[in-house]
Amino acid sequence: MMEATVAAAERPAPASDKAPLLSVDRVTLSYKTPNLLVTATDDVSFNVRESDRFVLLGPSGCGKSTLLKSVGGYMMPSAGTIHINGRQVKRPGPDRMMVFQEFDQLMPWKTVLENVMFPLLVARKLPKAEAEALARQYIDKVKLTRAIDSYPHTLSGGMKQRVAIARGMAMQPDILLMDEPFAALDALTRRQMQDELLQLWEDTKFTVIFVTHSIAEAIKIANRILLLSPHPGRVKAEVVDVDKVSHEDGSAAVLERDIHNLLFSTELGHKE
Ligand SMILES: Nc1ncnc2c1ncn2[C@@H]1O[C@H](COP(=O)(O)OP(=O)(O)OP(=O)(O)O)[C@@H](O)[C@H]1O
């Protein structure tokens, strides 16, 4: 058994022979409201490499969703830069597909097949037959072939999230961005969806940034976890080699306790 390593935030990330797919460099993200300026994240840096299952973990309000939005190109940093494949992120693009928590992210007037085909036709401008073939392939991967002609309102929450995942993955983006995709599901379905996501990753080794505030979910999904401090979010530590912890021998429980202590220690957690 090999335990995951919790690296202090100040320590440089371990050297890798691969250039990072995504570089987030000293990014500060703010919202301007009529009366105040809200700093959501402050001076955050991290790299994501190809095939990483990179989890952003931190307490509610630390800016995880805001960071994901900025990687998606929906929000520009007030300081710092984001690069994907060496190009600066300035707007949304089909190289970054988002999956959200909400079940209403599908178009209710379109069937499962039509929902998955839609971005392939509109954003990738594929011919209809090609879009349909690709959509069918990914609907099959998320085990929804039997519901392919169903409308979203006839599907369970888990099935709707599978459609959203198929739609994102069928675009074959460089990075799939998942914002608490399983948070609104019941515990049993949530666990099942986590297993299915890992199975999909085994099949295709896609790159994903996954936002959660569940420590257990982070440990299950990730190979790397970035721990963010409470509002405004700053990088507190990075946990590497997470996929080497074992859920059988108790090392995952030890890591869960260590992460909990790190996230909620007053010394680190509430230092401004
Ligand atoms: N549209 C907005 N306008 C103003 N402030 C915002 C807006 N969206 C988020 N914020 C603020 O930015 C901070 C970070 O919010 P964000 O939703 O990114 O956090 P989070 O870590 O994803 O939280 P949660 O886990 O609860 O979803 C919070 O203080 C939030 O109130």
From TrEMBL:
UniProt xrefs under Pfam families: ABC_tran
What CDD domains does the record tag this protein with? ABC_NrtD_SsuB_transporters
Q: Which PROSITE patterns match?
A: ABC_TRANSPORTER_1, ABC_TRANSPORTER_2
Q: What keywords are assigned to this protein?
A: ATP-binding, Nucleotide-binding, Transport
One GO MF term attached to the UniProt entry: ATP binding
Output the SUPFAM superfamilies linked to this UniProt entry.
P-loop containing nucleoside triphosphate hydrolases
Highest taxon of the source? Answer: Bacteria
Q: Which residues form the ABC transporter domain?
A: 22-255
Indicate the family of this protein. Belongs to the ABC transporter superfamily.
This protein is called what? ABC transporter ATP-binding protein
Organism this protein belongs to: Mesorhizobium cantuariense
